[in-house]
Amino acid sequence: MYRIIPFLLLMLTSSQSAFTQTFTSPQEQTHLIELYSSQGCSSCPPAERWISSLRESSKLWKSYIPLVFHVDYWNYLGWKDPFSQTAYSLRQRTYKQQGLIKSVYTPGFIVNGNEWRGWVRQKTFRPPLNEPGVLTANLSRQTLNAHYKSDKPLILNVAILGFDLHTQVLNGENKGRNFTENFIVLDLISRYSNNGQWDLKIMDLASFKAERYALAIWINDVESLLPIQATGGWIDN
Q1: What is the pTM of this model?
Q2: Which range marks the domain in which residue 184 is found?
Q3: In a domain? residue 6
């Protein structure tokens, strides 16, 4: 009896350490929906509520991958957005420099690398126009291995998304408001590969304070932010 218990514990520990999640895109292109937002912008809450509504859709992670980048160029108004990063503002500006969007503003939607205003009119997304192939990623603890069949150099992007993030805004245009936000980009990693294979480490989720997490994974060419293919899904505890 005393010999069996340690053996069972060892089996359980080994099983948990070997647990792997797999994220796989379809053959056709998955819509990558980016929202550029800020807690300091009074026009942003309706856009964030709209993108949060996608959480309940049966098409989530299959047909589209939503993510919300909080920019830092609203922080001067007196409220420093805790989720804002200069890198996210730079990403939005790079879209403009590459001629993919006309201007930098919030709330700003970019779908598949192009400016999109359809959320205001509740329009649906157009069906995919191409079939770029399958992007696959395996997550084991904090190690991510990704694969995409390609004969050219590519960039893999991996975003940790936080859900049910609660913030009380004390200053700025949204002073006095309480936000519960979803699909918030908490961390973004981008890695180069010349053979369609990537191995990287993601941050420990204990570093964050979300009630639930997901991954958004996508690839693009070295010289363009236009997404080629995307996948993602919930991170199991």
Answers
A1: 0.90
A2: 21-234
A3: no
